[in-house]
Amino acid sequence: MNNAVLLVEGLHKAFGGVQAVADVSFAVAAGEMLALIGPNGAGKSTCFNMLNGQLAPDAGVVRLDGRDIVGLRPRAIWRLGVGRTFQITATFASLSVRENVQMALYSHAGRLRSLLQRFGAAFRPEADALLEQVGMLDQADRVCGVLAYGDLKRVELAIALANQPRLLLMDEPTAGMAPKERVALMELTAQLARARNIAVLFTEHDMDVVFSQADRIVVLDRGQLIAGGTPEEVRNNPDVRAVYLGSVH
After folding, report:
1. Other Cβ atoms closer than 10 A to 217
2. Exposed, middle or buried, 41 (CB in 10 Å: 0-12/13-18/19+)?
3. Contact 172, 6 (CB under 8 A)
4. Is 78 left (phi over 0), alpha (psi -120 to 50) or beta?
5. Alpha helices, H only, the chain
6. Taking a C-beta distance cutoff of 8 angstroms, is the pair 42, 203 a contact?
7. Strand 33-37's sheet: what is its strand order?
8. CA nearest to 151, candidates 162, 161, 140, 160
9. Chain segment 55-108, per-residue pLDDT in tens
10. CA proximity to 218, closest of 181, 244, 188
11. Do residues 139 and 97 make contact, with C-beta atoms less than 8 angstroms apart?
12. How far, rounded to the nearest angstrom, does the alpha carbon of residue 23 sit from its chain's CA centroid?
């Protein structure tokens, strides 16, 4: 893939005698939504944690815009333009929606030490612009601790966009959300990804979200890549149907 933002080649990771990820390779292009799916224990989270530096692979290459990022710490990878959202939202409950996004903007600018106890006007326009993009500007002054879960997910997306990412990693982004909220969040993510030319790699258990929003899908089973392609190709793959999707799909 010539325009790959993320290129993964021959990724391996074992824990003791258990091979969690075995010879996994794939790529994600700018503006593309790539879903990484598989049953529980397939190796999805391990794979994610190697991509952003939380785990070191035993072997393999991870390239961001052609640069090998294996061995870099998560913060260094974040500064290179990799955003991430988590299965459980990670916001400061006592801070306002705007202040949560300002915190990420301060960090991206290397100015957390100057933050002290007051946010002031610094990065307020940038924070408000991000909140407007995710539909949360009208709640900018509310503390995150009182928000509905679906709104928290939107705030988390704004925070993930604060470092102007080239690549966005989303680990179970719709976990805990109502079905309509799930589709709406991923539709918004897809719109932003295409508008900003961001490569998005996401894991997701909701197959309606996966097949409606992903441009391509790769499937893991017991640490190995067993299929990849368009949603239609993956839906009709007999190996995928046997180990994961089942007869209902």
Report:
1. 25
2. middle
3. no
4. alpha
5. 44-51, 74-79, 97-108, 124-133, 149-160, 179-196, 207-213, 231-235, 238-240
6. no
7. 82-85, 167-171, 199-203, 33-37, 216-221, 224-229
8. 140
9. 999 999 999 999 999 999 998 999 899 998 876 677 888 899 999 999 889 888
10. 244
11. yes
12. 22
**Can you give the pTM of this predicted structure?**
0.90
Written as six digits, the tokens of 165 are 């990412």
Q: Are 43 and 23 in contact (CB under 8 A)?
A: no
**Contacts for 140 with CB less than 8 Å, ≥ 6 apart:** 96, 97, 98, 127, 128, 131
Residue entry with tokens 């793959």: 237
> Hey, what domains does the chain have and what are their CATH numbers?
1-81+168-249 (3.40.50.300), 90-164 (no CATH)
Give the residue among 246, 105, 106, 206 at the shortest CA–CA distance from 162.
105
pLDDT band for position 113 (cuts 50, 70, 90): low
